[in-house]
Amino acid sequence: MTDLSLDHWLKLLTIFNKRKQRLDFFQPNPAQEHLWQLMQQHNRILVVKARQMGISTVCRAYHYLQAQMAQEPLTYAIISHTRDSAQHLSSIDKNFHRNLPKGLKPSLSQNTPRATKFANSGAAIRTYSAGGKGGTRSFTASAAHLSEFAFVDDPAELLAQVIASVGDGQIIIESTPNTPADLFATMVKQAQSGESEWKLAFYPWSWDPSYQAKMLRGDLLAHERKYAEIHDLTREQMYWRRKQINIMGSTKFRREYPQTIAEAFMGGAELFFQPEALDAIEVLRVPADRAHRPISDPDPNDGYVMGIDVGSGSGGDYSAITVLSMRTRQPVYHHLSNDIPPGRYAELALQVAAKYFQPKIILEAQNAGLVVQDRLELAGYPNIYRERASGYKTTGATRPLLFGGLQMAVDEGTLISADPILMEQLKQCVVINGRPDHPRGCHDDLMISTAMAYYLLDRTPISHVERNWTRSVIDEHKAKARARRARRSLPWDLRGKTRKRA
């Protein structure tokens, strides 16, 4: 075999050029060039892609050349979600081989729809369908390319089989997104935060130079100009985007042609918040593993409201606290935990309330929330919001009303910056059965506590804020003294056991 670098060999391969409708030499686009370099540096690669970017093709080119250059009988596996898809990927390899110049084409000892084997080394490329029963259970490979992984019926089982087979060899997983909480989405999130060994690569539609169009009349709309500014897009790219959205709708476009990873995993449901409005919000830098999530210090010249969404505290759903400034209408503090029982969460709520000068609190007086409300009442907390004798309750009919204040804060640009977890939940919020909700497998606890705080803020007279603007230094010292007393004189102990009323 002629001694050429991988980069030189790549340009000797031929592909079917869809735009020219004929075979052409491989001229990598920017996304393909970037992934080509990553494949030479990493053995665990996770690719999120827009459609028609040629990602599968460059993956096939890399593994085909690796198999062709091998000196040992190594096996390179192609695995896709359906048999037709797997065979299509295999046909790309066969096309590479068939159209090589005669002097550079190695002989094959096997050439079937499911296998290509090189005579000199015994190295082989084998094709598997993840949809077939047991199709990948007994295979062994030195490297594997998994295409459209998000659409496999049992991705966890497939991934376990591939890792067991390949070991330390190279595994490339590439897929367009499917649902916001599937295994692929979870792996991407872990790779983003550095919690796994996978190297994440994301290729938005704007990386493809062909995705441009000319508009004969009209101009960009205000929200389009803002979107173009945020993502550094040209007018021609925005015109192409508008044209595609007019054809397939904005929700489907963002899923098929995402510009950000967040867009990629929004799913196919109708989004409750406008993505363009969310893009304008600054994402704050807060440690992802921190339960206490302060944003700004308490201001004695401000007033506050506090929303609490109470979970079971048993490792499932989360309990969340949001403190909102009445003067700026911005969140100033969050707390998020799923391992504190409701009784103890009331203690924490009292401590947070004391720090922020005893704000009015809103929480649901039902299920675990009723436990917290009872503990607050036992402690003599004076500022609990009520809409009926038993307290505040959310129903299916009033849920959109609860979210109205938060939606207005997002859409009108009032919410300037947000905690990263809150931003993630805002972007995942969809309309299900006519009301805002979260997709299966996702959380919305911090979003709900924030929505409750905005709901309460809209029902709090502005005079409460004006009064706090003139709070004196003496008042501040009094507030701190009350905070110390609140921590000392709770009517239950740290184990959650209720003390007798005085």
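Second entry:
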Amino acid sequence: MQLATVIGHATSTIKHESLEGWTLVLVQPLNNSRAAEGDCQLAASGFHPSVGQTVVLSSDGKGARDLIGHQKSPLRYFIIAIESQAVVV
């Protein structure tokens, strides 16, 4: 698992059948200091995160295939949580 920032959404007119119904987002992985690290990745999400939100990203390919229920899916990265922002009143 790794923290990442959502930097955009992907739109595809043609995609693998296993990705139908999933939101595809572009994420920038972060290091322990929350600085950008490595290349951007395409991840699937059922949460519909907004640009700028910090998410928890998993790169477990088998876990991704199990999640979407398709063993031949090309999916590797998926979002498992969105960081909540505490509101102080």
